[in-house]
Amino acid sequence: MNNLKQKIKNLSAEYFHEIIEIRRHIHQYPELSNQEYKTSDFIASRLKKFGIPFKQGIFKTGIVGLIEGKNPCSKVVALRADIDALPLIEKNDIEYKSKNEGVMHACGHDVHTSSLLGTAKILNELKEHFRGTVKLIFQSAEEKIPGGAKFMIEEGVLENPKVDIIIGQHVYPDLEAGKIGMKSGKYMASTDEITLTVKGNGGHAAMPDLIINPLVIASQIIISMQQIISLNPNKNTPTVLSFGRFIANGTYNVIPHEVEIKGTFRAFDEKWRSKAHEQIKKTAKLIAENAGGTCEVFINKGYPFLINDDVITENAYKSAVEYLGEENVVDLDLRMTAEDFAYYSQIVPGCFYRLGTSNKTKGITSNLHTHDFNVDEKSLEIGMGLMAWIAVNELDA
Predict the structure, then answer these.
(1) Please, are residues 81 and 137 in contact by the beta-carbon 8 Å criterion?
(2) Is 84 known to be catalytic?
(3) Active site residue: 142, 164, 176, 340, which one?
(4) Do the beta carbons of residue 390 and residue 207 sit within 8 Å?
(5) CA angle 12-358-304, nearest 5°?
(6) pLDDT band at 16 (very low <50, low <70, confident <90, very high)
(7) According to the model, what pLDDT value does residue 235 have?
(8) Does the active-site annotation cover 142?
(9) Is the pLDDT of residue 149 over 80?
(10) Catalytic: which of 36, 84, 110, 340?
(11) Fewest CB atoms within 10 Å of the CB: 194, 247, 288, 393?
């Protein structure tokens, strides 16, 4: 296996510059969720060039490729990358800056996609050296609830051939390029979007006796909502209930008829999640009704919590240590952010790990979802090689 590991490292270095060019092309032409048609065509063109068979058009823009090793029916390992971008105006001063105004790869999906293409090229070159099949999943619409993973699963992405294990990676600016992070068990939270429409009876601000003020009602609702967190039966895992939008279209002396509130709920337990949803509805409606108003509650249920299988993650951890050295593999904590990779990991054993992408010396330190997010491209060589090494170890386990 050491010989195979060295072959993977050699091919990663050989293909490195080609994958950088692929990443920069994707970065220049980002597309929003469910609109990734040109990105999908570009991925298809690369797979065709590599000689890898694929099927396009799964949930609109998704692609699935197959690489068959020896005895291809023995085991199937899926490798997943997401392909969509975010509605942000890029402010990086780089030659490959986004050419699609108002759209940017600020979450690193350009890295995920190009890295997986690199992994695919490596594994296709070495398919006589491992058993089983690698399924390549290029997934659309990760950034938009309810998530492209849900629909790709419904269209059979985990079947024909049936997936035994799934692996995914995500850029992580908290770690320097050259390092990766892992956590077994529960890792990322479920996520739901909450919209509250509080209605009262607006009017002149100087005549409070003639109005039912929806701003006061809405304020009481937000404050009372924080008490719901204390109802979480599992004190070992956190819950988040936060509101980031409060729109009351009045003015100095005009009280509006309604207020719109938007927020997010995140948890690590499905029973508690359902119970909390009911408590949110009950609390908001009761407070509004007691004050003479009403509250409409809409909860857009998003991704489930993400769980990393203990055995698969332990195997991936060992592979990472073999490939990068123990000093470059970091243990991670729970995250309240969410990922629709969770849909896969709720069905088949999986591991979702973090790829270090920052470089303080080069000034590459910006966080995800920011206007100036970028990565040290050295992480591409590590990302494609490590994923290939984890895959072949799982196939031959």
Answers:
(1) yes
(2) yes
(3) 142
(4) no
(5) 90
(6) very high
(7) 82
(8) yes
(9) yes
(10) 84
(11) 247
Give the C-alpha distances (Å, rounded to integers) separating 352 from 101, 166, 331, 378: 31, 8, 13, 20
Mean local confidence (pLDDT), 15-20: 98
pLDDT, tens digit (0-9, with 9 covering 90-100), for 57-71: 999 999 999 999 999
Q: How far apart (Å, rounded) are the C-alpha atoms in residues 317 and 321?
A: 6
Q: What is the DSSP secondary-structure string of 361-391?
A: GGTB-PPTTSTT----THHHHHHHHHHHHHH
Residues 366-386 pLDDT 10s: 999 999 999 999 999 999 999
What's the rounded Cα separation, in Å, for the pair 351 and 394?
11
Q: Which domains does the chain have, with CATH numbers?
A: 2-188+304-395 (3.40.630.10), 192-301 (3.30.70.360)
- Measure the CA–CA gap between 314 and 316, rounded to whole angstroms: 5
Residues 209-227: pLDDT tens digits? 999 999 999 999 999 999 9
Question: Are the C-beta atoms of 222 and 261 separated by less than 8 Å?
Answer: yes
Quick one: CA torsion of 374, 266, 239, 222, rounded to 10 degrees? 110
Pair 246, 237: CB distance under 8 Å: no
Dist CA 190 CA 268 (whole Å): 6
Does 1 have pLDDT greater than 80?
Answer: no
Q: Exposure pattern of 239-250 as b/e (b: 16+ CB <10 Å)? A: bebebeebebeb
pTM of this structure: 0.95
* Cis peptide, bond prior to residue 161, ω within 30 of zero: yes
Do residues 140 and 61 lie in contact, with contact meaning Cβ atoms separated by under 8 Å?
A: yes
Mean pLDDT of the chain: 97
Measure the CA–CA gap between 278 and 272, rounded to whole angstroms: 10
The rounded distance, in Å, linking the Cα atoms of 182 and 169 is 10
Residue 70 phi/psi, 5° resolution? -70, 145
Contact 103, 31 (CB under 8 A): yes
